[in-house]
Write a structure and sequence with these properties.
Blueprint: E1 8-10, E2 16-23, E3 27-34, E4 44-51, H1 58-77, H2 102-118, H3 124-143, H4 156-169, H5 174-193, H6 220-233, H7 235-247, H8 251-256, E5 262-263, E6 268-271, E7 282-285, H9 288-297, H10 322-335, H11 346-357, H12 362-369, H13 374-378, H14 390-393
Antiparallel strand pairs: 1-4, 2-3, 3-4, 5-6, 6-7
Length: 399
């Protein structure tokens, strides 16, 4: 019989032996710990055991046992003792938690996200996206008559069915499917940390392959037409679109910029970390074609104003909703009978492509667009400026 099979053993400088599962006729979790309340202190490790309740299948039983073992070992490592002063009894298996409704957990999760957003730990866009995801999950549950379902209903089958509905029934894109999967994975891990669930099943659900993004370039003729029209009818929205085209600034970033961020004397716009999508403070250059437009746009503006506000895109105190930018673009696009493929973000794509076509060094374009790598910028390279390798062409390679 080994020493570890004795109910009491002595090991110098050791306070405990980690818990482990014994799958015998009776499944038990076994571990050893010092009893600090022992009348005669002798540094003996006492064996503690408790049974693992049965499940329908061994796999679920092992998973359940593992969760208890992890918790026990974490407590033992922190110096916790399974004994008490009264009867030195070990920790008992916890009673099954009360049924918690999935809807309530959704609301609790969103409440935490709202608090993090208020403290600037998360972006408002993140809150909006998560709110939308949960809203659609709730709608799906109600359609399935599961509005009172327990949190355990949030399992692999449910999530697969929901994602199939998103992709096959609603005919959303692969990117949308994958975005939902990303959120489900995040929420699932949150549930595990709060001990609502025990298993991360999302690794079993595959992403759908996303086709390469097609970038639509707005031709010079159409570009000139819409810019001239905006200049005559809505000069402040014209300034916004011009800024997006020349400075390659994203829609949400434009809605957060303040007048003070525009340094006309230096010819730059400062984009702080709390404004930037990538959470990095950077600057972009204001080309000479844009300077006079911004000077006109900023007449009588205060430094604390938003650069483009909700007041018809003028500088002002009320922050602009990013969606209003693209909605306004759609209105003008329809009015001018432009192609549906000319989206608002096509302005930024067109600006990047034009800079590269003009021979601007890729590194400068990358910095202006604030891409994470040169490779990302090179995806915009038009085929017309790509050239054959001279060394390959002149290579004397015989058959």
């Amino acid at each position: 019989m080994s020493k570890l099979q004795n109910s009491n053993i002595t090991l110098p400088f050791i306070d405990y032996i980690p818990a482990e599962l014994k799958e015998n006729k009776v499944w038990e979790i076994v571990y050893y710990a010092i009893d600090p309340y022992e009348t005669k202190a002798n540094n003996r490790l006492k064996r503690k055991r408790h049974r693992v309740r049965p499940f329908k299948c061994k796999k679920e039983r092992r998973i359940y046992a593992k969760s208890i073992i992890i918790r026990l070992n974490q407590q033992l490592m922190r110096g916790w003792t399974p004994f008490d002063r009264v009867n030195n009894s070990p920790i008992q298996e916890q009673e099954p938690p009360k049924k918690v409704k999935l809807f309530e957990v959704f609301d609790n999760y969103l409440h935490q996200i709202e608090q993090q957003t208020k403290k600037d730990s998360l972006r408002p866009d993140t809150l909006r996206a998560y709110t939308s995801y949960i809203k659609n999950l709730k709608v799906y549950l109600i359609a399935k008559k599961q509005e009172n379902a327990a949190v355990s209903y949030f399992n692999e089958k449910f999530c697969r069915d929901f994602l199939d509905m998103i992709f096959y029934e609603r005919k959303n894109s692969a990117r949308t499917h994958n975005n939902y999967l990303g959120f489900i994975s995040l929420f699932n891990r949150w549930l595990i940390k709060r001990e609502h669930l025990k298993v991360d099943f999302t690794g079993n659900i595959d992403k759908i392959r996303v086709s390469e993004k097609i970038r639509t370039i707005i031709p010079l003729k159409e570009r000139t037409e819409i810019f001239n029209h905006l200049k005559e009818t809505n000069k402040h929205y014209f300034a916004l679109c011009y800024t997006a085209f020349y400075c390659l600034i994203r829609r949400t970033e434009l809605s957060k910029l303040k007048v003070a961020d525009v340094l006309l004397k230096n010819g730059i716009i400062s984009i702080s970390a709390d404004v930037s999508k990538n959470r990095k403070s950077q600057v972009v250059t204001i080309p000479s074609q844009l300077i006079h437009v911004l000077i006109d746009h900023l007449k009588n503006a205060n430094n604390h104003d938003f650069l483009f506000s909700d007041d018809n895109f003028k500088p002002g105190e009320t922050q602009l909703e990013p969606k209003k930018i693209s909605d306004t673009w759609s209105k003008y696009k329809k009015k001018l009978n432009f192609s549906k493929f000319y989206q608002w973000y096509s302005l930024k794509d067109t600006g990047i492509t034009n800079y590269l076509h003009l021979g601007i060094p890729t590194i400068d374009v990358r910095n202006q667009a604030r891409h994470y790598s040169i490779k990302q910028t090179e995806e915009y390279l038009p085929k017309t400026i790509l050239k054959a390798s001279g060394t390959i062409q002149s290579a004397k390679l015989d058959i």
